[in-house]
Amino acid sequence: MRFAVPGDINTRSGGYAYDRAILACAPDLGLLPLPGGFPFPGPSELETTRRVLLAAQGPVLVDGLAYGVLPPELIEARRGPTLSLCHHPLALETGLSEAQARALRISERRALALAAHVIATSETTARDLVANYDVEPARITVAAPGLPRAEAAPRRGSPPVILCLGAMIPRKGHDVLLRALARLQGLSWSALIAGPAPDAGWARRIGALSTRLGLDARVRFMGAQDQPGVEALYAGADIFCLPSRHEGYGMVFAEAMMRGLPVVAARAGAVPEVLPADAGLLAPPGDDAALAEFLALLIDTPEVAQRMGRCGRAHALTLPDWPDTARRVMDCLRAAA
């Protein structure tokens, strides 16, 4: 049994972290590397992918970044069952043109029709696949990301530290966060924004926006972080905020809750599924005024922030760890064999 993953498996993103964790917890599942370039591969990348998948025998699970654009004839030609891991539908990525989104929806719908089984990372994504991609519920298994146990953050920042952790891409809503912070100039706070920058142009735009809004003295951009760096950021934070425009799950929200951090986010995709109402506050997607109002509430009323942090941690401690998630994935592969 193999797990086909496009690009660099060590890429720092929630989707790749999920893939790495499954491989680490499932010794019977081997990595099948695919070329990069997905979801817009060139001819040579598609040809390499074709050769790799046709040579693989037995069940192969393909990460959705690649699966959604696989040619139907390739899936049909494989000598074993092909399964899809869908983090979120490809067409929901922010920043696509209408033509790109339409093409991805058509391609992914065709590919999913041929999947032996589909693994979704959230109930929200599973419902989306049923409603908009014609996947029968019986062909879907939800395997939510695991959540390793961790110590709660002390939350003693003075001023309170707002942490934003996520890749520098338009979907994550860093622009919304900065506009919200610009509304809070009269309050005491500092902010740390960390994460890789796969979209260098977007990262430059966000840096320029911070300067234009007069935030450079209070907002620090920390760049990509290794795991010890991420742990240090969580340990030094008081509030977590990531106003994503869509999330297929949102692992960082669960991680923030495990650290006892109150969360401010957007009511988008699977975020309401991950974040209980008593653990955080959800603004409409793209609404910087509402986001600022919720951040101000947590800054001005520490008792509310503390209560939400406690509730979030209590919920996080009930969530599965990665070995549980890996077992669900492996059960699907064995059933398809």
Automatic annotation (TrEMBL):
Alphabetized CDD domains for the sequence: GT4_PimA-like (cd03801)
Keyword match Transferase: yes
Any one GO molecular-function label of the UniProt entry: glycosyltransferase activity
Keyword Transferase belongs to the record: yes
Keyword terms, alphabetized: Transferase
Domain Glycosyltransferase subfamily 4-like N-terminal: 77-147
Pfam families: Glyco_transf_4, Glycos_transf_1
An example Gene Ontology biological process: lipopolysaccharide biosynthetic process
InterPro entries recorded: Glyco_trans_1 (IPR001296), Glyco_trans_4-like_N (IPR028098)
Domain Glycosyl transferase family: residue ranges: 155-313
Protein name per its UniProtKB record: Glycosyltransferase family 4 protein
Organism: Paroceanicella profunda
